[in-house]
Design goal:
The chain is mostly helical. Helices cover 42% and strands 4% of the residues. A two-stranded antiparallel sheet has the order 1-2.
Length: 463
């Protein structure tokens, strides 16, 4: 196996074992942190399919509890999402695009500059919406297959994936000298949020009428790896200059890890996991992904880890919690416990986000905007924060924009913590607030409602 290019940083001590691991409120300069001495080596992972977000044991546990609460209500959310109907039909496109409408929506000069005028049609700039809806449907239908043995649901999910593999040729890239063989708008990299959803659907469908051993399954795997893996690898390799935020790295990292598991490809798996441990980009939990780790000033005895997007806004910050959770869960099901990595740094990261965003119990889960600091269980003053600069911004306080953002992920974190004896006060409170959560179809029609698979109560809640 060739050495993975992302072995650059270390999970060992930064700034004499203290500056990234535990620091007081103050100011930190990410780029001044010295290169650590330890390197993590690629591993050889052994696993039994299904082995991504849900193992065979996970599925059996949920099936055995479907007649009990909260699983019964969570299952009804799946059945009524609007994306788990057995007659759902895919809407594949040849070239996927996620482009800024102001620059690309009218087919103007940028299409000429990029050498792709012939590809333009009205609406192409936003056609990734087809993809996020279809990936949500494929995943939800595959859950119905696993939990209820619904063969019609399985057939519909398989058809969605096969239709995309037959039609799609990846994302929009330029042909002209300015954009030669690269994306014409960096927002296209965010299409990768959907790849781990499609891959998880395919993983759950392996045992449907032998599909996992079929040529059609191989074509689906080849479609993902051929058209999306190179862009994911390129992005996490090059996103190390303090510009694109943590959620961008996480989109490509979850895509890579899921494709690696689906394809039984150790190199792709290691590429993703080593970037999480020691990469140069903000997806690395040891360096740019976490600004500082603190003792909780509220006296719980727990750790809180301030993340890369904590000073930006809470919509993206909570998205990072959802994606780090998915990444850690997929790794856990192939034998790599990243939840526990470096004294539970990922859990401390999720705890920080949960503490700041959990509303008071009397407000409940159905709130809509108009929240103030008094609406939340823990005031802003209870949050430690270290000033930092990223993407040209100097962030001097925790961001209150989109505070209370709803993302269906918290029972994934809470389930791990419950079964591993981790206290996780704020994760538990957030999970209790939103239980049972939903998925695509329950959190709005935009990309924010579809960037994560959801249904964490259904699949991850544990007694």
């Amino acid at each position: 196996m060739k050495k993975i290019y992302s072995i650059i940083l270390s999970a060992a001590t930064l700034l004499a074992a203290s500056s990234c691991c535990e620091i007081e409120d103050g100011v930190t300069d990410i780029d001044s942190w010295p290169m650590p001495s330890k390197e993590y080596d690629p591993q050889v992972y052994s696993f039994n399919h299904p082995a991504m977000l849900h193992s065979a044991d996970d599925i059996a546990y949920t099936k055995a509890h479907l007649g009990q609460q909260p699983w019964a209500d969570a299952y009804q959310k799946l059945l009524t999402s609007g994306y788990s109907n057995n007659d759902y039909k895919a809407s594949p496109v040849k070239i996927l695009a996620r482009l800024d409408a102001g620059n690309w929506g009218d087919g103007g000069g940028r299409w000429d500059d990029a050498g792709i005028r012939d590809l333009y049609y009205p609406g192409i700039h936003n056609n990734y919406t087809n993809f996020f809806r279809d990936c949500a449907a494929a995943y939800q239908l595959s859950l119905k297959w696993q939990l209820a043995g619904d063969t019609d649901a399985a057939a519909a999910a398989v058809k969605i994936l096969e239709d995309w593999a037959a039609v799609n040729e990846g994302i929009l890239v330029g042909r002209g000298p300015r954009f030669k063989d690269t994306v014409v708008d960096p927002n296209e990299y965010l299409i990768m949020f959907q790849i781990h959803q499609a891959a998880n659907a395919a993983e759950l469908l392996r045992d449907y009428q032998g599909w996992g051993n079929s040529e059609a399954f191989a074509k689906v795997v080849n479609w993902m790896v051929t058209y999306f893996r190179p862009f994911c690898s390129k992005f996490i390799r090059e996103n190390n200059w303090n510009h694109s935020w943590m959620n961008w790295d996480l989109a490509s990292m979850t895509a890579l890890l899921s494709m690696g598991i689906l394809a039984d490809d150790q190199e792709i798996i290691n590429e993703a996991i080593l970037h999480f441990k020691q990469g140069e980009g903000p997806g690395c939990i040891m360096r740019k992904g976490v600004i500082a780790v603190y003792d909780d000033p509220s006296g719980t005895g727990e750790k809180l880890a301030q993340g890369n997007e904590s000073g930006r806004d809470q919509g993206h910050n909570v998205l990072c919690a959802a994606m780090v959770g998915a990444f850690c869960q997929m790794a856990y099901n192939i034998g790599e416990d990243l939840f526990a990595f470096e004294d539970g740094r990922a859990i401390a990261f999720a705890q920080y986000i949960a503490k700041y965003n959990v509303v008071k119990a009397e407000i409940g889960p159905d709130y809509e905007g108009n929240l103030t600091d008094a609406s939340f269980r823990y005031p802003e003053s209870s949050m430690p924060f270290t000033t930092y600069t990223y993407s040209g911004w100097e962030m001097t306080k925790i961001a209150d924009g989109a505070r209370g953002n709803k993302r269906p992920c918290w029972d994934l974190w809470a389930g791990y913590c419950k079964t591993h004896g981790v206290k996780a006060t704020y994760i538990r409170e957030m999970a209790e607030l939103f239980r049972p959560d939903g998925g695509g179809g329950h959190y709005g029609n935009g990309s924010g409602g579809f960037d994560q698979v959801g249904f964490s109560t259904l699949m991850h809640y544990r007694e």
